[in-house]
Specification:
By secondary structure, the chain is mostly helical. It is 81% helix and 0% strand. The chain has helices at 4-11, 13-20, 23-30, 35-62, 66-88, 90-93, 98-102, 108-123, 126-150, 158-164, 167-185, 189-215.
C-alpha cells in the first residue's frame, strides 16, 4: 500500500491544480499581480505564520518521539523567524509599518485557516494534526517551484518566489512528509480516515487564503 502522503496528494490533485492555476498565482508568476493584492497577501501571511507557528509548537508537544519534538519545535521557530523576516524585508519594501500590520485584522480566510489549525492542534490526535499541517508545507513548495519555473528574472516578487522554491524549504517539506507518513503507518483505519479529512480541509483553506488575497477579502460588517 502506498504511504499516506501519496494517497492524500492523489486524492487532492485536482484541488492542487486549481490552486496552481488560480488568478493570484498565475499573475504572481507573470509579475502582473497588483501591488495592493500582494501587500494584502504578505500582511495576512505574516498573521498566518504566527498561528501556524503555534500549531507547530502544539504538534511538538504531542509528538511521541524526541526527534519529532525537535523537528516541530524548530519548525515553529522557523515560522516565526520567517514572519519577522517579512517585517524586516517585504514590509519595509512595501511601506508597511509595524503599526499598520498590528492594526490590520486577520481577513476572514486567514482567520478561518488559523482557527482550524489551532482547533485541530488542540483537540485532535498527533497524526491528524500532522495531516492538517502538511498541505501548507507541501502545496506552498509545489506552487513555489511551479512559479519559479515560469517567472522571469525581473519579476518584482522574485524574493518571495525564491524563498518558497528554495532548497531549505524543500528539505523542510520532505521532513514533514516523512513525519506524517511515519505517524500514519501506526495509525488505525479510523484515524487514517480523519487524517484524510484534515488534509483535504487544509487544502481547501489553502485555496481560500490565496483567493482571499486576490479579492483583498475583508469582513463585510
Amino acid at each position: 500500500m502506498s504511504p499516506f502522503s501519496a494517497q492524500a496528494w492523489a486524492a487532492n490533485a485536482a484541488a492542487y491544480e486549481t490552486i496552481r492555476t488560480m488568478p493570484f498565482n498565475t499573475e504572481l508568476a507573470a509579475g502582473t499581480l497588483t501591488r495592493a493584492r500582494f501587500t494584502h497577501y504578505i500582511v495576512q501571511d505574516a498573521h498566518y505564520l504566527i498561528g501556524f507557528g503555534r500549531a507547530l509548537a502544539l504538534a511538538a508537544a504531542k509528538a511521541p518521539h524526541p526527534d519529532r519534538i525537535v523537528q516541530f519545535a524548530r519548525a515553529a521557530e522557523t515560522a516565526i523567524v520567517v514572519e519577522r523576516a517579512l517585517h524586516g524585508g517585504f514590509f519595509r519594501d512595501f511601506g508597511i509599518t509595524p503599526e499598520a500590520f498590528a492594526g490590520t485584522p486577520l481577513s476572514p480566510p486567514c482567520d478561518h485557516y488559523v482557527s482550524y489549525l489551532l482547533a485541530t492542534a488542540y483537540a485532535d490526535p498527533y497524526e491528524v494534526v500532522l495531516a492538517a499541517l502538511l498541505p501548507c508545507f507541501w502545496i506552498y513548495a509545489e506552487v513555489g517551484r511551479d512559479i519559479f519555473s515560469r517567472a522571469k528574472p525581473d519579476n518584482p516578487y522574485r524574493a518571495w518566489i525564491d524563498t518558497y522554491a528554495g532548497e531549505a524549504f524543500g528539505e523542510a517539506v520532505t521532513a514533514m512528509i516523512a513525519a506524517t507518513d511515519e505517524a500514519a503507518a501506526e495509525a488505525s483505519p479510523a484515524v487514517i480516515a480523519r487524517m484524510h479529512r484534515a488534509y483535504t480541509q487544509a487544502t481547501r483553506h489553502e485555496w481560500l487564503f490565496w483567493d482571499g488575497a486576490y479579492r483583498e477579502a475583508a469582513w463585510p460588517i
